[in-house]
Task: inverse folding
């Protein structure tokens, strides 16, 4: 008889596979108004409930802060830079199978520092971005059977780069992210070609309503190519969205829905409450997710309009 107990204390169980849990899907690279200075800070705590058969476990964790800073250089040209987590490799898994206790712990991930340039023309906007990838991760595998324990620890150092560029023309947008390489230093160094992404978008405004459709196709040598999409509808201050996001790891799918509520900060910016609900699954394993994202957006902090 096999008894399997799964317990996740810090992240998605699926972070154990591939490069970890990808954090950068559906990031909109166009600003529209380039004349405003802006600082954006995001915190994305996550509550997961893991279910396999009759086994249920609940956990709470949070991603690091995300930072994006936009500085206008000219009325139609801006420079932005920031940092974010690209892949999370944090997990804790405990299982019992036929008297064998196994505990696997992962810490760390792959971070990204980027520099981006946006140029606006009358009815168009272009951007280009270069990113440096870095980060350390560690895995501890501990086995216990018959009173005896064995433990192995593995250390990884990640470094790499990736580039992207795109164009928005009237209601249509397109971008490409590619030329990405990641070098993983361990007992045997391995270099991965990161998945390329071709993204398209369509925006339509009618009276107080705004509709946005985003579609992304990934293609890769090592991982699973996928097609994913996101539909966003907004009326005045309330936004709703649904996203279908199959992972680059074969067999893992994710459905997510959420909404956005802004809270204005007088003369400074806005606080955005972005709660989202999702389901990740692979075979019989399901992970129910609640993400109460909190985003602080400060505008014109460094540059006030001249009267």
Result:
């Amino acid at each position: 008889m096999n008894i399997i107990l799964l317990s996740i204390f810090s992240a998605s169980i699926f972070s154990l596979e591939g490069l970890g849990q990808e954090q950068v899907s559906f990031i909109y690279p166009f600003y529209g108004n380039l004349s405003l200075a802006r600082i954006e800070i995001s915190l994305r705590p996550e509550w997961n409930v893991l279910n396999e058969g009759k086994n249920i476990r609940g956990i709470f964790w949070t991603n690091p802060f995300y930072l994006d800073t936009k500085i206008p250089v000219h009325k139609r040209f801006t420079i932005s830079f920031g940092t974010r987590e690209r892949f999370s490799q944090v997990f804790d898994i405990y299982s019992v199978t036929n008297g064998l206790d196994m505990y696997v712990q992962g810490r760390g991930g792959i971070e990204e520092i980027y520099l981006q340039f946006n140029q606006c023309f009358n009815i168009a906007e272009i951007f280009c971005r270069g990113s440096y990838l870095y980060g350390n991760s560690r895995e501890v595998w501990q086995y216990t059977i018959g009173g005896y324990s064995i433990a192995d620890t593995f250390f990884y150092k990640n470094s790499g780069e990736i580039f992207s560029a795109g164009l928005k023309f009237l209601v249509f947008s397109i971008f490409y992210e590619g030329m990405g390489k990641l070098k993983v230093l361990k007992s045997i160094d391995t270099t991965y070609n990161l998945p390329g992404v071709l993204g398209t978008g369509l925006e339509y405004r009618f009276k107080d309503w705004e509709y946005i459709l985003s579609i992304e196709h990934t293609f890769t040598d090592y991982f699973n190519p996928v097609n994913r999409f996101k539909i966003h509808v907004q009326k005045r201050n309330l936004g709703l969205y649904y996203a279908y996001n199959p992972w680059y790891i074969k067999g893992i799918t994710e459905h997510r829905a959420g909404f956005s509520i802004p809270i204005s900060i007088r003369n400074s910016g806005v606080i955005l409450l972005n709660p989202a609900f999702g389901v990740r699954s692979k075979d019989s394993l399901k992970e129910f997710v609640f993400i109460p994202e909190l985003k602080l957006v400060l505008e014109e902090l460094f540059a006030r309009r001249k009267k």
